[in-house]
Amino acid sequence: MSDGQSRPNDAQIVVSGLTKQYRNVLAVNNLSFTVQPGRVTGFLGPNGAGKTTTLRMLLNLVTPTSGTATIGGQRYPELTAPLRHVGAVLEASSAHKGRTGINHLRVLCAAAGLPRQRADEALALVGLTPAAKRKFKGYSLGMKQRLGIAAAMLGDPRVLILDEPANGLDPEGIRWMRGFLKGLAAEGRTVLVSSHLLSEMQLLADDVVIIAAGQLVRQGPVEQVIGSMAQGVRVRVRTPQAEALTTALAGGPATVQTDEHGTLLIAGVDAPTVGRAALGAGVELHELTTERPDLERVFLELTAGKAGIR
Amino acid sequence: MSNLVRSELLKIRTTSTWWWLAIGALLSIAMAFPINAWLFNTAVGGNAEDIGLTGDAASAPAQAANLYTSGQYLGLMFVMLIGILMVTNEFFHQTATTTFLATPRRTTVIVSKLIAASLLGFAFWLVTTVIDLGAGAIFLSLNDHGTLLGEWEVQRALLLNLMAYAIWTVLGVGIGTLITNQLGAVITSSVLYLIGTQVVSLLFFMLSSWLDSVAVLKWQVLWPAVASQVMITPGENEMLPAWWVGALVLIGYALVSGIVGVLITRRRDIS
Fold first, then answer.
1. What CATH class does A234-291 carry?
2. What keywords were assigned to this record (chain B) (predicted)?
3. A82 to B11: CB separation less than 8 angstroms, yes or no
């Protein structure tokens, strides 16, 4: 959007000291992060980490106990035309079951003062035109997600906020969603997506914000967050002669660990070096794999012990 | 604001609920009209005492007013249910999220619902009244009473009935914001409307004989369904307050439930 490119700060999300105390649970605890325009930002955290509560506070659906969340410097209720500024997809099932998809969008168009044909355009954008006049209760989960995205796109907003949009989508739908969101970011829009599908996030996100137990764990570009982990590339080796191989590698830069299945995890050297050492020592190998750290491994290490029910 | 009212009316038009309640309102006319026609004939035919009617209540204009508002008792309940559903549907189908995303100013949303509700109440009144006018005028003319539409008592009943329809729909919206559980709100309010009124009458009757005071019965007007009846009933006596007392009580309920509803909705976390 030309608007978003000329005034990038208009589409920046700033969360500052956000806290939500429910009766028995501190759902979000002094959380601060920023989300930049022109990039897809993945919002990650274990179940119950406070992702949904944070997004709902950003959208004024839930009142924070303290702290602020702004979009382009304004709190959500201060936006003069919220749907033209921000589009949000929060849960797949938020439409009246007896209402048709097109009518669901027309109701929102009327409320936001948008022209009626925006409903048709948004439906076409997500490929749902053939189901326009079908009632919502007859939609598959994937169609419901698409309708939610159509609703978010009604006002052609500069900021997109999506809570678990890949839920219920088939592989084709997930690939469509990835291309769609990347395209929106490439146009200069801000895209904030919460998810727990880490492999999908690695393909989709430019930046990540990782939270656990309501607190920020790590924020930054995906490569940087992965690279920041202490353990970099490691070599995974299965062999019946583990001790012989460990001995052969001793004295070099390699550090060898053994996991619970007896598999060796070797850091500090690359796979050819391990292979050569094994050959030299006459050690039989059943597997020799290079393991690069990925988002999933980083995520699990960063959030270890902080997941679960609170 | 007009955009939001339009959006609220579109919400109602695009689901089938209002259609079922409209059928209900029409059926209640179909049930009530023959009974009221029989009452008219009995009262005006000189047998008023047999059905417990005396004085003004047995007069032709009073009975015509009753005939021309046939189906009103259940009709008011149906518009109240529409008002309730206008709010509880948002929580039942989780559309409150998209509604408040489109309009984060929640007071405006509730006020728009109140306006849309009163417009809808007006529409229900208009349709039921047109049917009652047609059927009533034919019945009365065939029985050589003329239409009696020139009588102020009849016109007054029609106008106050309009007010009742608008207020009960608004009251429904208020109840919906107080009890957001759809089934809970619908069942509670229907039971209170249909059975609660009889229970209240019984309690007041017992209270009145215990205190040995007929005037106590007047206080039944504090119960909304009784207030509604008082409002459209002409005349007053030691047991029946004036019509405007009923109107004030009913408007009071609508105002209080609307204001409390707005305050609660403003603070509520939507999750």
1. alpha beta
2. Membrane, Transmembrane, Transmembrane helix
3. no
